[in-house]
Amino acid sequence: MYNLEFDEQTRVLFQRASGFWNLEEFRRYHAEFAALLSRIRSDGRPIKMLFDSRDMPPQSAEVVNAFSKMTSADDMNADGRVAILVSGMLSKLQAQRISDNPLVKSFNDEAEARAWLAEPI
Length: 121
Fold this sequence. Notes:
Blueprint: E1 2-7, E2 12-18, H1 23-41, E3 48-55, H2 61-72, E4 82-85, H3 89-98, E5 104-107, H4 110-118
Parallel strand pairs: 2-3, 3-4, 4-5
Antiparallel strand pairs: 1-2
Helix pairs in contact: 2-3
């Protein structure tokens, strides 16, 4: 399960995900995410992202690999920072494995993630 919301005022795309995903769930998410991202970016202004995965257990290798491919794709590269909220060390390690981009960072604390998103690049 997932939810995508964009705050036009702060230019932050909020993503919440839960549960153990299979590749079909990932594909549905990716299609909706890519369409929303395309619409948001159509005005040329940068965005930031907050991905809340605290209700997501560690995922299978195939789903982690799919997320990794998505985050390295040209259309996914962030204009701004991407904060990933995780609930445990294994999830944090998986999130770090997905991207080595310095603009992508994992957090256990939402306030800390939001503060980091608000910092200038």
